[in-house]
Automatic annotation (TrEMBL):
GO terms for biological process: phosphatidic acid biosynthetic process. It holds the Pfam family Acyltransferase. It comes from Streptomyces sedi. One of its GO terms (molecular function) is 1-acylglycerol-3-phosphate O-acyltransferase activity. This is 1-acyl-sn-glycerol-3-phosphate acyltransferase. The keyword Nucleotidyltransferase does not apply. Residues 40-150 form the Phospholipid/glycerol acyltransferase domain. Keywords: Acyltransferase, Transferase. The keyword Transferase applies. It comes from the Bacteria. InterPro entries: Plipid/glycerol_acylTrfase.
């Protein structure tokens, strides 16, 4: 039987695809690089609140994102849980979120992570160790994704990118850290993997900007 979180992510993926392609004009480059099956971690830069929904609606596969706990309020919280998203406390070690995220990877699903931890310049200069932890423990490949244009301000709804405006989603080549075997542990291995991830993600972002002219 498909786990409830996976069913929700599939349903949410279909819904988000329709919404995202109605509200904006996303251009996805490199979607063919996404493995069709197996555990995968999407590492996405983060400049706007819509980055998660944009990926949710444009990724070739359903994604379960680690989403800040502040978003899980009222009807929105119920909706996020229903579509397979994972509530995480960014201020503490959230063991429940860690178990849920590892569960997504163990069943061969796609885990979405914002490595910078919060919105900012979206340039991957500060990458938290959580991404390396999941990659090392699971052996899952990391797929870098650059979202470009979501930080533009619309005229009608100033808190959102321009309606029917173009947003580029650039998918890079997946890579593994620590040999990809899922057995390396310890602080030194975590630090090395985090450094490698930061360099690779920054390089992908530079290439994406050159490709799109953004």
């Amino acid at each position: 039987m498909t786990p409830p979180g996976a069913r929700g992510a599939v349903a949410g993926h279909r819904l988000a695809r329709g919404v995202v392609h109605t509200v904006w004009r996303p251009r996805v480059l490199g979607a063919w690089r996404v493995p069709p099956a197996g555990p995968l971690i999407l590492a996405v830069n983060h400049t706007h609140n819509v980055d998660g929904p944009l990926l949710f609606g444009t990724a070739p596969r359903p994604v379960s994102f680690l989403v800040k706990r502040e978003a899980f309020v009222g009807p929105l919280g119920a909706f996020l849980r229903g579509v397979g998203q994972i509530r995480v406390d960014r201020e503490a070690t959230d063991l429940a979120a860690v178990r849920a995220a590892r569960g997504v990877l163990e069943r061969g699903g796609v885990l979405g992570v914002f490595p910078e931890g919060t919105r900012g310049n979206g340039d991957f200069t500060a990458v938290r160790a959580g991404l390396a932890y999941f990659a090392l423990r699971s052996g899952a490949p990391i797929q870098p994704v650059a979202v470009l244009g979501s930080d533009r301000q619309g005229r009608l709804v100033r808190s959102l990118p321009p309606l029917r405006g173009r947003v580029d989603v650039v998918v890079g080549e997946p890579f593994t850290v620590g040999g990809g075997g899922g057995s390396r542990r310890g602080r030194a291995a975590l630090d090395r993997a985090t450094d490698e991830i930061r360099v690779r993600l920054a390089a992908h972002l530079r290439d994406a900007r050159l490709t799109t002219g953004r």
